[in-house]
């Protein structure tokens, strides 16, 4: 059975705990997931992402710029943008 993600409206299967597009918890997975989805809907900053470090460093004529970004491996969300978002 499929349903729509409450956050991004992507079609998700009932056999997955999180939406593959936005990492929001699927409320139809089980009772605990339903409770987590209710909390996330009230405060989207509670969505559990799988942030991994990505090295975007580069060299130029004056040396090297070291840039480390943290991106979710499942949905591609940027941790800095995610943490600095004001939820209305």
Describe the protein.
This protein has 88 residues and is an alpha+beta fold. Helix content is 19%, strand content 25%. The strands form 3 sheets. Strands 1-2 form a two-stranded antiparallel sheet. The longest helix has 12 residues, at 31-42. The radius of gyration is 16 Å and the shape is elongated. The two termini are 32 Å apart.
How large, in whole angstroms, is the Cα Rg? 16 Å
What portion of residues belong to β-strands?
A: 25-35%
Q: Can you tell me the overall shape?
A: elongated
Strand order across the largest sheet: 1-2
Number of strands: 6
How widely separated are the two ends? 32 Å
Average of per-residue pLDDT values: 81
Succession of helices and strands: EEHEEEEH
The proportion of residues forming helix, as a percent range, comes to: 10-25%
Total number of helical segments?
2
Unreliable segments of 5+ consecutive residues: none
Q: What structural class do you assign from the helix and strand content?
A: alpha+beta
Task: Note the main sheet.
Answer: 2 strands, antiparallel
What is the strand and helix layout of this fold?
Elements: E1 2-4, E2 11-13, H1 31-42, E3 51-55, E4 58-60, E5 63-65, E6 68-72, H2 79-83
Antiparallel strand pairs: 1-2, 3-6, 4-5
